[in-house]
Design a protein that fits this description.
The chain has 243 residues and is an all-alpha fold. It is 65% helix and 2% strand. Strands 1-2 form a two-stranded antiparallel sheet.
Length: 243
């Protein structure tokens, strides 16, 4: 017999506290470059808070599912051993999958997997889903310190007009922010990327982060309450009684 003692602790709460700290100290910052750096940190940590929250709650939901399924019993020892061996391996595989998951779309597929419903409510139904996906794309380029790069060309084949070649996570963020009227010009015109890291833009991303976490909380609460331990025990008893 082996006893396994597993210790886990989420760090998203620390990142949330750090965001509060950054907001508090941003108020008195007059240097625009320092303020841009603070806003970049808030954006990065906002996406990390979402990932940490989803990892913690998906793991919690997995344990809840196992708790319910574990209530199924078999009188035959060999069947019981096979069942629990399979269940333990499945749990380890799914837990590893959760811990390795990155990117908001991949988390969305996990809630579909764990749900009892044929058509579960998923994260894509969040009203600011596009903004959340842009937040993660922006976080990815920022976290790796990717430089901003664009090319402008004017030639006979452009008929005398400038054509811009600007792609990647920064471009996607800029296009989204232009559509939302959160910025007024683009990188190729300004030749600086600071315009997508203003207080207004950062506050938008942090606001939809908090709204998304609240939305996800309701999904997890519904899924956790979808089936109780007592329900599966009752179903098992009724099945045995009818045989």
């Amino acid at each position: 017999m082996a006893v396994h003692f597993i210790i886990k602790q989420p760090i998203a709460d620390y990142q949330g506290d750090h965001i509060d700290f950054l907001y508090e100290h941003r108020k008195g910052i007059k240097n625009s470059d320092i303020r841009t750096g603070i806003n970049i940190s808030i954006i990065i940590h906002s996406a990390c808070c979402i990932e940490g929250f989803l990892e913690y709650n998906l793991t919690k939901l997995l344990y809840k599912r196992k708790e319910i399924i574990n209530k199924v019993t078999f009188e035959d020892f060999s069947k019981r051993r096979i069942f629990h061996s399979f269940l333990n391996k499945l749990e380890m595989d799914l837990e590893a999958k959760i811990s390795k998951t990155t990117g908001i779309d991949n988390f969305n597929s996990l809630i579909d997997l764990f749900s009892y419903r044929n058509n579960p409510v998923n994260f894509k139904q969040f009203k600011h889903w596009e903004g959340i996906t842009v937040l993660f794309q922006l976080r990815n380029v920022l976290a790796h310190g990717r430089q901003v790069s664009a090319k402008r060309v004017i030639a006979y084949f452009t008929q005398g007009a400038w054509e811009d070649d600007f792609v990647g996570g920064y471009r996607k963020a800029e296009s989204y922010l232009l559509k939302k009227n959160l910025v007024k010009h683009n990188f190729t015109e300004a030749e600086k990327i600071n315009h997508i890291f203003t207080n207004k833009v950062t506050d938008h991303f942090f606001s939809i982060t908090r709204q998304f976490i609240k939305f996800a909380e309701n999904i997890f609460e519904t899924e956790m309450n979808e089936s109780k331990v007592e329900m599966i025990v009752k179903e098992e008893f009724l099945t045995k009684s009818s045989t």
